[in-house]
Amino acid sequence: MGVSFMEMIRGCFYNFKRFGGRRMDAKDLALLCLGCPNPFCERFCPAGNHIAEMNERIKSGDLKGASEILYSTNPFPEITSSVCDHERQCLRCVKGIKGEPVHVPQIEASLASSFPRDLDKKQNCGKKAALIGAGIANLSAAWFLSKGGWAVDIFEKDGTLGGAIVTGIPSFRFDKTPLQGIEHDLSSLGVRFHYRTEIGKQTPLSSLLGGYDAVLASLGAGKDNPGPFAPRKGIIPGLNLLRAYNEEKATFPEYSSCFVWGGGNVAMDCARALRRLGKKVTVIYRRSQKEMPANECEVLQAQQEGVSFLFLHNVSDVVAKEDGSLKALKVIAMELGEKDESGRASFHPIPDSESQIPCDLLV
Asked: What is the predicted pLDDT for the residue at 98?
């Protein structure tokens, strides 16, 4: 049921022709919706958006009502319409089986740009909530709590809201200026932000537990993941590299031959970031391109930007220089087998296929 990046492009071109060469608006796109009784787009939407009802409102000309339906489950469509895993979620449309899916992200982005969030809220209910972390999960919680009359305080160890949107997603993939509007709207509802406040250090957790009616910790993936190898110069966890690239504007001048180990969206972000720094970058992945969990559009863009791919190979060990820094990778060729629990083909090492590849950075 997935839809490829090229299929999306063909679908956009088809729709462009269908509507007389003019730019499609939300109603144009919603008219393509079949109104399925059990829509795949809703079934695979983790936010539980009422997509079919939203599209029906748009078809009837009630765009404001459609935006209200959208905001009832998803207060920040300007974010989700860009960064969600659409290919596996709302673009799993029955029309995508033999053609182009209804482009739900574009509909949501159009509604978000045309109709601002409603900042009315219920009277103060006398309840207080402390939210630890200012990522998208807690921002959503703050929205619904404050709309319901709660007093909300958000405690964030960094200097801005957004969490992984800021630290993990490069700006070349997502424009982060909408976060300013989200902060403005939440502040207008009375939400208070406490930046550079790490709970457990500056503020003890016990003070929150004793001073609030509810405490919600949404901390994200904060742990380093160096893989199976001992920490050394030249091995950097992917999220650490992205944080350094996004926040510290690191250029990693000491590295030139870089390998990114993995096939997900974080791997694609790392590879594309390193290419923008002029590095020679190769993604090494143990399965074929067909099994990669990264979005097809991310893989295609990485290839177009000059990232090389070494499929059906895995890293078995590393070789260090005398000073302990990375010198080379030991890799082994793989072959595919039966499908595993993930639904993808399993992989198995090919005997006597080991080789070494010079490398000074493994992500």
From this structure: 80
